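User: Parallel beta-helix repeat (Two copies). Structure?
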Amino acid sequence: MAASRRRLVSIAILVAVVFAAGLFVVDAGSAEPKPEPVPFHDTVTTGVVLENDPTPDAGGIEVPKVQVFYSQYEYVVGYRGVERFVDDRSGARHEERFGYPIAAYVTDYSTVDVDLSEEGYPVAAGSPSWTDAESAAYVVGSDARTPAGETVVPFGERDDAAAFAAAHGGTVVGWESLLDPEREFDVDDAGVVRDRVERRHARADDRVEDTNRLRERPVEVVVGEDAPTLEAAVEAAPPESTVVVPGGVHEVPNGDGLEIDRPITLAGRSDGDGTESQPVLRGDGNGSVVVLESDRAAVVDLRIDGVGDATEPDADDGEAGASDALEMAYGRSDAGIAVADADGVLVENVTIETPATGVLLRDAPESVVRNVSVHGSDRWDEGYMGVTAVRSPDAVVEDSRFVDGRDGIYLHRSDGIVYRNNHLVGNRIGVHLMYTSSALIADNRIEDASSTGIDVMTDPAHNAVVGNEIRGASQGIVTSGSRSYVAGNLVAGTDVGLTTGAGHSIYEGNALVANLEGIRANHLLPTNEVTGNDFVGNYEHATARLGTLRVWSEEGMGNFWHGAVGAPAADRPVLERSHSPTHPADRRLHRVDGAPTLARAPATDALSTLEGSVSGMRAEQIVDPDPLCEPANPDLLERADWEWDEPERACGSTAEHGGTGAN
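Assistant: Predicted structure:
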């Protein structure tokens, strides 16, 4: 026992020495050579992504790159975009997270012929080599661009940099000038996504208002009065008119569905109140029931059933060879309403019972699906999607309900889509994004998803996931890609509430309540902002799967950790003691008697500090140096039926915080 105390005292002394000398100590007498550059595909990469990056040998795009070896990070970090490295390096706590750079190399355009494409992208006739970053020359302020914005172009020879600047504008600077704190680059980041949320809502409002005009077309044909059948009525209707479908059941026997190839509105006329009295379009169980093939066509106020059960195209589908594998797997199923090669379509106030897809949007940009109910198969593996959107950018799906089936919505290459105010129950995945960026997933309620509430896949960027409520899923929100904004979500009763797989992203104002794991940090690079979140009643508030130290605080404000101990600070609404939800003691504060006493022990604090600052002891940790002293999102916690029963320990109190269970 005495020996243990001596070891703890020694650790405390070592901590004091480390802090007296600074966090990162360099051996000035070391003669170890710099590490050599590695192939870029062996680095942990971040920055701009070119989904279909052509090969350099084909004269393809060559985004300027940096690779950096850090003293406290076991991987080589690869930055696509020199400006991305410069911006990261200037960020708060960058050195605390990574350590100091041991070596840095940049793309050497002196070794290839380089020009700019029409878009301003650097195009190289070959594969450039690497050159030492400190000796390189850099062209800033030129016409060179990447999909993320302006870019810095590095050269091993200053004369080559000067020649490029003469041809394409800009100024030649050295390494120290490039890193000058006064120099700023317009770097595309998650803050831009946050700032655009309201604008995206407003654009969606405009789109909905525009399609509402499709309801105002004059009535020209009434089924049963002016034409004997649905097909005859559609055939007789002139463009920009309405075909009225009266109450009752209307058979659609053709396996090809009711085809609408001109801009008309197909509108049901109910015999009573409510959707139960709406006219019914009934297919024969083969194929889609309604097929829209015209811009600004509309289907409103109807019920649809008798949908075919095919979820994949026939082997002899003539378009199969021209479609990618994922489209063939998800975008060629039978549907209650199938939209193909048509812009600005409206589907509104429609109820669909389907063993396959409810609404299929294929090449249908700026379409609107609203107030739609889709009831799929009870077993998700026997059903398909509520809505599928393939290459349908800037569409809006809102105020709808999707029950059972495979995915509530599946998005494939449909950038800019807005999916909001929907209710999803019993799907496999509620919202499933593939190759889709700049989407707004907002204010949806997702219940009992057998797999994931919201799953963002395949390296996208600029997605906003805000204001959603997810309960009872295996996983709540799973992210990937970069530069996304995840905020204001309530996730409760899941195995894993939220994962931080999207890098350079902002996760703020979320409430993770009564999950087995509140949040899982699984991005290799500690580049995310995680602040203003509430972690209450979870078995594990946070876990870290990969990477190194994550510091979850921005501008002196961290997160609320139910059970955290420490006295409130005098000048800020935070605790004086930092909190590490991955620390052996801190992780148990809210659920194990005696853990608060252990966590406040000087030796435990000393060991925790050492593990967070010394390279060899930087296990996969999360540290919040500024934990909030009371919840940040009381409205979300109220919706989760959780009450904070320690008001005497709120901000401004001098009592130390303890932990009690969730109600």
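The longest helix spans residues 190-212. Residues 40-187 form one domain.
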